[in-house]
Amino acid sequence: MLVAACSPADEAGTAPIQPDAAQDAGVPEAPVTLHEAPLLASTPTELNNTYRDLLGFSAEGSQWPPTPEIAKTFAPTDNETLGVFGTATLKPDPWPWVFPAEAGEDGFEGLAGGQQPSAFSVETLQKAATHYAAYALVSERFVECDAVTQEPLPEPEGPTWADARPVLEASCGGCHGGAGSGGSDFASVYADNLAPSSFCDGETVGACVISRIQDGSMPPNGKTAGVSGADLALLETWVAAGMPDAPPTPGLWSGVPEDAKASCGWTSVERFAERAWRRPLDVDERERLQTLWANNWAEGSPEEAVVLTVSAVLQSPSFLFRVERGEPERAQGDAVPLTDHEMATRLSYFLWDSMPDDLLFAAAAAG
Question: Is the overall model pTM greater than 0.85, yes or no?
């Protein structure tokens, strides 16, 4: 078990006497107080920050990519509501995840000792793991294929969500930016744009938005629509094309050649697990994880294999808890020093409530 050592000051009140210096001076060594290191569970803030940094996305949830459709296969959304443009649904930002409050122990968050997890908190952790595992498919930080050249991505033929979103944010964000007076986030319109609209007979939800801008019924209360000219033409072209999504970002799972996905997927999962667990995997862990990956690969699609395996990584105690085993071979009596990766993890969560960054990981690996 890990311990911390504290050396008191000498009798004159000066700096603590180091053991080697005390021995050389013929002075008895100062007594050492040993403290057992507590088991730490990640707090809700630490979990959310770690999900964000693992995947490499923004600290603004509204700037995250749309939730991959495959996430609904494993965890159907149960908190959607009807939008004002017809059948469009309102959805919360994909990040941060809402976790139940901690009970705490001795007035501190994150102390696992003495806390009994509820069935609800376990279910919440499972849902969060599946949700963020799906984001591995659209994360540049996930794909790790040293020997694979990704296939070139096709150029979009017309405007996409990447072009339309800035126009909508600048022109309509005041009422439809999520918390505006309009009561509907314009992103929810995009989510269900091809469904029939209950406000415009015979038109889709997306086409209804353009029609209401053109006939002056939107925005209401005599406000002036901020969409006109080239911006309105861009939106009309975008809606007519079916409101296509933003083009894929190079470096994503979708760009990996099909014949390379099995090997690339395993390499990516292995490196993801090392970052998620904040240390190198041992031999047994690597074998078990590789077996899980192989079984998931054999039973479903490549995308399902990624989501299921990454979800398991995010539900592991090695992710949810900060496990410190130390280096027993360097123990001095009952005092067991931390490993370099454990020290990096302690420092990282102390400084910014999140996992070590690349620089800190590199320093730990270098010793």
Answer: no
